[in-house]
Amino acid sequence: MTSLIAAALYFVLLHLLVSGTALRGAIIKVTGEGAFMGLFSLASLAGLVWMGWAYGQARGAGPVYWDLGPGAKHAAMGLVLLGFLLIVPGLFTANPTSVKQEGALDKPGPAKGILRLTRHPFLWGVAIWALAHLLANGDAPSLVLFGALLVLALTGGASIDAKRRKALGPKYDAFAAQTSNLPFAAVLAGKQKLSLGEIGWWRLLLAVTIYAALLWGHPFLFGVNPLA
Where are the domains of the chain? Predict the structure, then answer.
C-alpha cells in the first residue's frame, strides 16, 4: 500500500503541479517545449507503470470500505462501455484542447463530432471508467488507484482550458463558448446538436470492439472476471 500511495501521489502531483502551474513554463524555458513534452510523457508513463505494478502488489491488502453487490458490478460494465464511447472517439477526433492540435481552431466549425458533447471527451471517459471501477471495488488499493485517476480526470479539463485560453486567447474563447466541459451541457443549452453520424460510426464501432476485447481478456490481463 505504501508504494501504491506514493505512486498515486507522484502521478497526481506530476500533473497538477508540473503540468498545471507556472512551473511548466519555467521548465519549458530551460528545456524547450519539445523536450518538455517528451520528458513529461516519459514521466507520466513511468507513473502509470508504477501505479499498475503497486496496485497488483497491494491487491487484497487493507480494509474493504464498501461492497455494493452484483448490481453495482453490472452497472459498472455499462459505465465502462460509456467511458470507451467517449475515450476512443476523443482520441481520434481533432481537438484544440489536445497537444499540437491547436490548428483545428483555424478550420471552419472546430466543434465537431464528439466535441459537440464535451470538449474533453477523453478525460470524461477516463472519469467514468474510474468511477465504474470504484463502484465495483471498494477495497483500499482500488480507492487509491481509481480515486487518483478520477480526481485527475475531473480536474484536468479546467486546467487544460486555462492553459489554452492563456496561449490561444480569443480563438479558444470562441471555441469554449460553443462547447462545454460538462458532457451534454452545450447540447442541453441549445449551443450544439449531437450527431452520431458526425462522431463517426467507425469510431463508435472501434470503441465497442475494444471494450468487448478487454472484457473478454480481463481475467487474463488483470486476474479478475467482471462477468463472474
Answer: 1-58, 65-222
